[in-house]
Design goal:
heterodimer; A: 362 residues; alpha/beta; Rossmann fold; 7-stranded mixed β-sheet; 5-stranded mixed β-sheet; 13 helices; 42% helix; globular; B: 269 residues; two-stranded antiparallel ribbon; 11 helices; 38% helix; binds thiamine diphosphate
Chain lengths: 362, 269
């Protein structure tokens, strides 16, 4: 099963898309993720699986192409980096409102503004707290390895279709650009028309036949009472996802007295810092959220009764740390360590930050 | 003399006109005199006549026609403001045997969505675009549109559109006609029975072109907006004929079978 390869994180996103039976990719070039569309254009999947690949005129167009393609019950995806995702936010809100399944990849770079092309994790708020307008959520998966870049393409689509919701892979230039061994999945064929009917036949715009009502994909409800009912429905779905789909990983938490909380590439760095700490006799562990929405709130609350403090490590000025604080709810000290604007912290300085935190308890 | 009862007249063989089944029985929200209603009707008739109800996907805009999906009994996608051509692009590419059309106002198509329409047309997407140009933003209460004529008063050009402040009215249809990806560009209107017949013929051709896969078909309907223009429906038609037709002359701008790729390839040799 699967095939062992040495690949870049971005390339594997493209490969996994083809292999999981994706119907269409629509994107616009931006560093550090352009290899995704470049790989797809080189692979020419339209000649093999029939997958459509199109360079759109902008990220605004790409995300609206997703809205069109997803409306037809097709597996469609886009990828971009921070400034491009900012442009997509109106469209993501529409996709969420119209309950359209799709996959969005954000290979985050440093901001604000044009910022830097170097890796960052400063789009956490944008991803998990809306970003676009209205009360909505997207399922956000945060890979920490090239293998997970591969795995989360298929998983992202599965979750998107299970709940009729956009899925987003929240990664950064570190994971996107690094090369690792990866087992790529076996080829799955694209869905046939009959399969699309079975999966999305109650709502997709595939052409109104005699035996059914017309399908309308819209996020519009001019009557506020109806719009509130629609919002209740969305919120109920989000609560269900919070119960069912939280994913996280623990590293050396069993006997830990202090905890790092970090996702994605920061978690990779923290893993090393845990080893360095343990070598010095400091009992430190790591909790790595794999889904940053839904967030592992319940598990963090449990761990707050076992450890003396938690340090959120992020390549941002402190965003996810708010979710840690909410989960901990004042029981133990929580602090944040971050390098940002494109700077990647070293395991050594992360350990130093932990030692300072332990001393000061802040 | 035999008396003729009404029931003797209402017979199938006497029928000269009927409402197409593609139009639903929902009461339209359009103002009296608005061109959207008639334009909806002829699009619906074309879909029925071509027998493509089960293969047609409409993309409605943000604007007065946002609710077009309440009136035509086909599958619809409701797009964000200006983005209908992007939705249509993906839909057509993913379902190439379907008929896909966008239905857009002038603010939607020529202002906020100018990039999407230009690029969809330039790629020669095999879609049909119905462009309802009433030279004003109807839905939001009569603000200036990119197509508002010079001197025309609107809510955001209350003293009349002037170049120094607002720039020139945009002939987007002429721009579109320059693009090699576009097969058919025409400008029509729907204020008289003759005009309606011509507009319908144009829309039909636009849909038929999709089967030929020869590129984009773009049909502008020069329209009225009595509410926005603050004129009666009759005066609106008169005003349109006197002023709009001068700046936006009716007729075909382009009718070709296919872009000549060779013309473009020679630059690289
Ligand atoms: C992003 C965004 N900006 C602005 C609006 C508000 N808005 C709704 S309709 C409209 C103008 C529509 O005018 P037009 O396209 O000419 O169509 P008409 O209503 O005249 O048929 C505007 C500006 C919106 N819905 N979304």
């Amino acid at each position: 099963m699967g095939e062992l390869k040495l690949m870049k994180g971005n390339e594997v996103i493209a490969e996994a898309a083809i292999r999981c039976g994706c119907d269409g990719y629509f994107g616009y070039p931006i560093t550090p993720q352009s290899e995704i569309m470049e790989t797809l254009m080189l692979e020419k999947p339209w000649e093999t699986t029939g997958m459509v690949v199109l360079q759109a005129e902008s990220e605004v167009a790409s995300i609206n192409m997703l809205y069109g393609g997803a409306s037809c019950g097709k597996k469609v995806m886009t990828s971009s980096s921070s400034p491009g995702i900012s442009l997509m936010l109106e469209g993501i809100s529409y996709l969420a409102g119209a309950e359209l399944p799709c996959l969005i990849v954000n290979v985050v770079r440093g901001g604000p503004g044009l910022g830097t092309i170097q890796p960052s994790q400063a789009d956490y708020f944008q991803t998990t707290k809306g970003g676009g307008h209205g009360d909505y959520q997207v399922i956000a998966l945060a890979p920490a390895s090239v293998q997970e870049m591969n795995d989360f393409v298929g998983l992202g689509f599965d979750l998107a279709f299970k709940y009729r919701i956009p899925s987003l892979i929240l990664t950064d230039g570190v994971i996107g650009q690094m090369m690792e061994k990866v087992i790529v999945a076996d080829h799955k064929p694209r869905w046939t028309d009959a399969e699309i009917q079975k999966i999305s036949g109650t709502w997709a715009t595939t052409g109104k036949t005699k035996n059914r009502e017309r399908h309308v994909v819209t996020s519009l409800n001019l009557e506020s009472e109806k719009q509130e009912i629609h919002n209740h429905h969305l919120q109920a779905k989000y609560r269900e996802i919070e119960v069912n789909e939280v994913r996280f990983e623990e590293f050396q938490t069993k006997d830990a007295e202090y905890l790092f909380v970090a996702y994605g590439s920061s978690a990779r760095i923290c893993q090393k810092s845990v080893e360095l700490a343990r070598a010095k006799g400091i009992k430190v562990g790591l909790l790595r959220p794999i889904t940053v929405w839904p967030y592992p709130t319940v598990r963090i609350a449990e761990l707050a009764t076992k450890v003396k403090g938690m340090l959120a490590v992020e390549m941002s000025a402190g965003q996810m740390v708010y979710d840690v604080r909410l989960a901990v709810n004042g029981k133990i000290p929580v602090s944040h360590f971050g390098r940002y604007g494109g700077v990647i912290p070293s395991p050594g300085e992360v350990l130093e930050a932990m030692e300072k935190f332990i001393k000061g308890g802040k | 003399m035999a008396t003729i009862e009404i029931k003797d007249i209402i017979k199938k063989e006497n029928l000269v006109y009927g409402k197409t089944k593609i139009l639903t029985d929902n009461i339209m929200h359009y103002c009296p005199g608005c061109s959207h209603g008639v334009t909806h009707k002829i699009v619906a008739e074309v879909i029925e006549e071509l027998g493509i109800q089960d293969k047609t996907i409409g993309v409605s805009p943000v604007g007065c026609s946002v609710l077009a999906y309440n009136y035509l009994d086909i599958d619809w996608q409701q797009a964000a403001h200006g983005r209908a051509p992007a939705l249509a692009t993906a839909t057509k590419r993913l379902m190439p045997d379907h008929y896909v059309f966008t239905y857009q106002g002038d603010g939607d198509l020529a202002s906020i969505g100018a990039a999407e329409i230009l690029h969809a047309c330039n790629r020669g997407e095999n879609i049909t675009v119905i462009f309802v140009n009433n030279a004003i933003y109807g839905m939001t209460g009569g603000q200036m549109a990119p197509t508002t004529l010079l001197g025309m008063a609107t809510a955001t050009s209350p003293y009349g559109r002037e170049v120094a402040l607002h720039g020139y009215p945009l002939k987007i249809t002429e721009l579109i006609a320059l693009l090699p990806g576009v097969a058919y560009v025409t400008r029509q209107s729907v204020q008289t029975p003759a005009a309606v017949r011509k507009a319908k013929k144009a829309i039909k051709k636009g849909f038929e072109n999709q089967a030929k896969k020869i590129g984009t078909s773009f049909i502008e309907i020069v329209s009225t907006c009595s509410s926005g223009w603050k004129l009666s429906p009759v005066d609106s038609n008169r005003w349109m004929e006197e002023h709009m037709f001068k700046f936006y002359p009716l007729g075909d701008l382009k009718d070709s079978e296919k872009a000549n790729e060779e013309d473009y390839k020679k630059y690289i040799e």
